[in-house]
């Protein structure tokens, strides 16, 4: 009885921290969902929708960095590849739109899991270059195989009147599509947070820290790393499907390595050590790019300066700095 008495106060103290992320995420989800309606600006709704879709891609890149310690220059392959899979399946009427949507997410995920057993045998710069090479192979495929993907002209995504019983206009109107994308992003962040707290999440972090030690104590390390790579690819593919549904068109630019590079910059600026950091970085990147682009054609200089400042002054990114600040305020000694 006395032992229970000793434990209860500790649990009472830990519970608020355990639920801190879901509670904060719920507040952010609600505030974000109300933002377009409060602002009443169609342009803002469009920017938020596009920024949220890119944030899903950046979250996928950040997840791979956090759980596997690997930097990918090729996630645009899964993002743009999913968009192309959806467009081609609908253009050639291979399957129903619902099956096409599911396949556009599942196929890149399975593909990443399988090639992960080869690519994850190398680390560091070698892995990054390998992802770049594979992604550029995909880019060249859609660029040069005109009879399949129409080359640089791209292809339209011929969505039917309804998808999963929802009128297609809902997916192509900025205000309603933002709510869909925003809700999916929040669910992805919650899922990754739960995964990070699970045994699997702890194991993959341990493997990242010292793979040889994990093998020595009896854990298989390649499969968990491949699963992390596949989950990351699946999230990127989910973003690609939303991109295709919203824009109704897909071009080779969506597969190009520069798209992967932008997502990586977003993840670094936001901070990959937190689940939500890459998404924050994507939103900041997107709106800074839009604002700077309306002033000068040399907007990449602003992004470059921001990247240098964050890398030097905030090694854990803006998200990491905000997390540290929050722990100092709410967690006392943990700051």
Describe the protein's topology.
Elements: H1 2-18, H2 20-39, H3 42-68, H4 76-91, H5 97-119, H6 124-144, H7 146-149, E1 155-156, E2 162-163, E3 166-167, H8 168-172, H9 174-197, H10 199-209, H11 211-216, H12 222-247, E4 249-250, H13 257-270, H14 277-293, H15 299-313, H16 317-330
Antiparallel strand pairs: 1-4, 2-3
Helix pairs in contact: 2-9, 3-9, 3-12, 3-13, 3-14, 4-5, 4-6, 4-12, 5-12, 9-10, 13-14, 13-16, 14-15, 14-16
Can you characterise this structure?
The structure is a single chain. With 335 residues, the protein is mainly alpha-helical. It has a domain of 216 residues. 78% of the residues lie in helices and 2% in strands. It has a two-stranded antiparallel sheet with strand order 1-4. The chain has a two-stranded antiparallel sheet with strand order 2-3. β2 and β3 form a beta hairpin. α2 packs antiparallel against α9 and α3 runs antiparallel to α12.
